[in-house]
Design a protein that fits this description.
Blueprint (H helix, E strand, L loop, with lengths): L13 E7 L7 H12 L3 E5 L14 E4 L5 E4 L4 E5 L8 E7 L5 H14 L4 E10 L9 E5 L2 H6 L13 H11 L4 E9 L8 H15 L8 H17 L2 H15 L8 H18 L1
Parallel strand pairs: 1-6, 1-7, 7-9
Antiparallel strand pairs: 2-5, 3-4, 5-6, 8-9
Helix pairs in contact: 1-5, 2-4, 5-6
Length: 282
């Protein structure tokens, strides 16, 4: 079991979780949780014991020098942090880790038990996948939920996917087993620029978090990083005629398809986020 530091009773906490690995194309999902940990000043209160779940020849420990000048070993693990964002009237539990190499059911069970101990009422998992989407268009984000009420309120779709899954799917299923509502959001990263980072995908996931939590999230330099990323990919595409042609074909396909992220409702929602951030900054 995960040993958690003593903390005050949390107020209606919601969990946001992401894991490096198969579920995390271009590190977009884990970068989203990293961003939230930073801007919300989250405090780590517990971690999974890595000995039972990680193959250290696959996820190797690292050595470094601490603030006192001593060499220390840092082991790969999954950490649990808590935050009290000023823009929310509830607390947030942030889970940031690495997809385990073994004992997935035990791993997911320990995380769910920790969430229950902290009083969590909703779990949000984040993922990112590679897809045939052009970098010049809005990053598509798909969402699913385990409860019909959440599907209706958040305008999501019930997942019809069948096939291999990662720790995000296993963790969400573990939540279902204990009747803990769960939502999952996945960003579609252009497959031809799969190397991390992908700030545009991280920004898209943060937008979904703002909608679900009904609060603005400080974005810091992410919007400019996303624009710089897009300009950089533009330059790379211009240097290769075949790549440029391929991107244009993806753009034509997207522009002739009725897409949720390009709808009037989606544009209005983005404008509402912008206005809310402006109000919060004043």
């Amino acid at each position: 079991m995960i040993e958690l530091e003593a903390t005050r009773d949390l107020v209606d906490p919601v969990v946001i979780a992401a894991f490096e690995g198969w579920n995390d194309a271009a590190d977009a999902a884990s970068a989203t949780v990293d961003h939230l940990i930073r801007v919300w000043g989250a405090r780590v209160i517990g971690a999974v014991d890595p000995e039972d779940f990680y193959d250290f020849q696959v996820n190797r420990p690292s050595v470094g020098i601490d603030a006192s000048g001593y060499r220390r070993i840092s082991w790969p693990s999954t950490q649990i942090a808590i935050a009290s964002p000023p823009s929310l009237d509830r607390d947030v539990i942030l889970i940031r880790g690495i997809e385990p190499n073994m004992r997935w059911r035990q791993f997911a069970g320990e995380l769910v038990a920790a969430c229950e101990e902290l009083g969590a009422g909703l779990v949000i998992t984040l993922g990112a996948l590679l897809a045939d989407t052009p970098h010049t268009r809005p990053i598509p984000v798909t969402g699913t939920a385990t409860e019909p009420e959440l599907v209706d309120r958040l305008k999501l779709e019930e997942s019809t996917y069948e096939g291999p899954t990662g720790i995000v799917g296993v963790f969400q299923d573990a939540c279902v087993q204990v009747d803990m509502p769960a939502v999952s959001y996945w960003a579609a990263v252009p497959h031809y620029v799969a190397q991390p980072p992908c700030p545009k995908a991280t920004l898209a996931l943060l937008g979904q978090m703002e909608d679900l939590l009904e609060a603005s999230i400080p974005l810091e330099d992410l919007p400019e990083d996303a624009r710089a990323w897009e300009r950089g990919v533009d330059e790379l595409a211009e240097e290769d005629e075949d790549v440029a042609d391929y991107v244009r074909s993806l753009e034509e396909t997207r522009d002739t398809t009725d897409l949720p992220e390009a709808s009037g409702e989606a544009i209005a929602r983005e404008f509402e986020r912008y206005l809310k951030r402006r109000q919060d900054d004043d």
